[in-house]
Amino acid sequence: MRIATIIIISILASSLNLNGQNRIIYGRVITENFEPLPMLDIKNSETSLLGKTDVDGWFKISIPQKTEKLLFCYVGMEWTEVILKKDCDTVEVVMMYDATYDFMTLRKVDRLRKKRFDNLPNLHSEAVKNGLFKNNNICYERTFKVNTPTKPVLDSINKVYKSKNRQIKDTFKGIKLGDTIRIPYSGSWRYDGTDRTTLHQYSNGVGGEDFDCIIRGVIANKNKRKGGYNLVCKVIDCKDCHYNNIILNGKELKAGDTIVYNMKYFKILRN
């Protein structure tokens, strides 16, 4: 009887010890645009899968007490590593888009990324106000990581950048006041009772000339303010834009409107 009692006590003590080695982490993961990230991978510092978010971006995982870092991985987003504090059991994360910055130096890209990174606490607070997050307090640490490509990769990027920049500069120089250009756009349709389509510029890195929406305009002015190749264009027509109720910069676009366009970053087509 005495031996049986000792065995039972030992098993209970062992069970309590095992439970004490784990901690439960709750949380949610969203984008900079406050959209939930479903089926996102949550890993430890050794990239072992710990769990996934549900369809609304929420998660609940059990991790060893010794786990200090979590890695959030999702296609199209910058992978995010957080360092957990000792009493941190609610982890709510705003992930940054893995954006493409065509024909910019890596230093400038990192400046833009750092600006977005520094704004993440404000987005976190906004998510709390909107009921997307539960806690104002961010109980983990997160550091900004600069791009660190190898020298051959860096040299290749700089070579492409310089070549493209020369091409854009020559094109800009050849454009005269009164010239007609075509500006391609993509469109995102959103039904809000008005059946509108919002236009988005194409990056200079996009090839081809076959687009669903092309706006024709005449050059009214040009300048190189703030290091750009800026065109002031008066819209001639939108007949080659195959969208309904097209919206640009929050307003319906029509013939006679003025578009200010920086061809250093965005694509134009010559007639």
In which range does the helix fraction lie?
A: 10-25%
Structural class estimated from helices and strands? alpha+beta
Radius of gyration: 26 Å
What overall form do the CA principal axes indicate?
Answer: elongated
Averaged pLDDT = 84
Main sheet summary: 8 strands, mixed
Give the N-to-C terminal Cα separation. Answer: 97 Å
Strand content: 25-35%
State the total count of DSSP E strands: 16
> What is the number of helical segments per DSSP (H or I, 4+ residues)?
4
**pLDDT < 50 stretches:** 12-19
Summarize the helix and strand pattern as letters.
HEEEEEEEHHEHEEEEEEEE
Model description:
With 271 residues, this protein is of the alpha+beta class. Strands 9, 10, 11, 12, 13, 14, 15 and 16 form an eight-stranded mixed β-sheet that branches. Strands 3-2-5-6-8 form a five-stranded antiparallel β-sheet, with no helix packed on it. It has a three-stranded mixed β-sheet with strand order 4-1-7. The relative contact order is 0.11.
Summary keywords:
elongated; alpha+beta; 4 helices; eight-stranded mixed β-sheet; 35% strand
Short structural summary:
The chain has 271 residues and is of the alpha+beta class. It has helices at residues 2-20, 106-118, 120-129, 151-174, and strands spanning 22-31, 41-43, 49-52, 58-64, 69-73, 80-84, 90-95, 140-141, 180-190, 196-201, 213-223, 230-241, 246-248, 251-252, 258-262, 269-270.
